[in-house]
From TrEMBL:
Superkingdom: Bacteria
SUPFAM superfamilies per UniProt: HisI-like
Reactions listed under catalytic activity: 1-(5-phospho-beta-D-ribosyl)-ATP + H2O = 1-(5-phospho-beta-D-ribosyl)-5'-AMP + diphosphate + H(+); 1-(5-phospho-beta-D-ribosyl)-5'-AMP + H2O = 1-(5-phospho-beta-D-ribosyl)-5-[(5-phospho-beta-D-ribosylamino)methylideneamino]imidazole-4-carboxamide
Record's GO cellular component terms: cytoplasm
Keyword Metal-binding: yes
Keywords: Amino-acid biosynthesis, Cytoplasm, Histidine biosynthesis, Hydrolase, Magnesium, Metal-binding, Zinc
Gene expressing this chain: hisI
Family from the record: Belongs to the PRA-CH family.
EC numbers on record: 3.5.4.19
Database matches in InterPro entries: PRA-CH, PRib_AMP_CycHydrolase_dom, PRib_AMP_CycHydrolase_sf
BP-aspect Gene Ontology terms: L-histidine biosynthetic process
Subunit structure comment from the entry: Homodimer.
Protein name per UniProt: Phosphoribosyl-AMP cyclohydrolase
Binding locations of Zn(2+): 96, 112, 119
C-alpha cells in the first residue's frame, strides 16, 4: 500500500495539503507540475506519462486512486472516474532529483485514452543499425 515516507500524515491529521516534508523535496516545473511515470506494479510495463501538482499527489497518496492534473482542461482528474479504467495505486516514489514521480498501479482496463493498454502501443520508432 502507498503512503510511505510520511504521505499519510496530512490525511491522518485531517489536512487536505501535501505533507510538508514531501512538498519541500519536490522540484516542480514553471507551472507547478511534476511528471509522473505510471507503471504496472507486477510486470513493470510502462503505461503512461501524466502530470501531478501538489494536490494530485496528496490525493493519490491519501485515497489510493491515481489522481493527475490535466494540462488541457486545467483541472484535477481521477484516472478512470468516467471511463472505469481505474488505477489502484500500489506505491509512489520520487526519483533521485525529486523532479519525477513513479506511480506503480494495478491498471483496470486501458491506460490510454485511445483505448490501448498503454500510451506507448504505437509503432516503435526505427533505430539505425550500426
Amino acid at each position: 500500500m502507498c503512503g510511505g515516507g510520511g504521505g499519510w500524515v496530512g490525511w491522518l491529521n485531517g489536512s487536505m495539503a501535501l505533507d510538508p516534508k514531501i512538498a519541500a523535496r519536490l522540484k516542480r516545473n514553471a507551472d507547478g507540475l511534476v511528471p509522473a511515470i505510471v507503471q504496472q506494479h507486477d510486470t513493470g510495463e510502462v503505461l503512461m506519462l501524466a502530470w501531478m501538482n501538489d494536490e494530485a499527489l496528496h490525493l493519490t497518496l491519501t485515497t489510493g486512486s491515481a489522481t493527475y492534473w490535466s494540462r488541457s482542461r486545467a483541472k484535477l482528474w481521477v484516472k478512470g472516474a468516467t471511463s472505469g479504467n481505474v488505477q489502484h495505486v500500489k506505491s509512489v516514489a520520487l526519483d533521485c532529483d525529486a523532479d519525477t514521480i513513479l506511480v506503480k498501479v494495478d491498471q483496470v482496463g486501458a491506460a490510454c485514452h485511445t483505448g490501448d493498454r498503454t500510451c506507448f502501443d504505437a509503432d516503435p520508432l526505427e533505430l539505425p543499425l550500426g
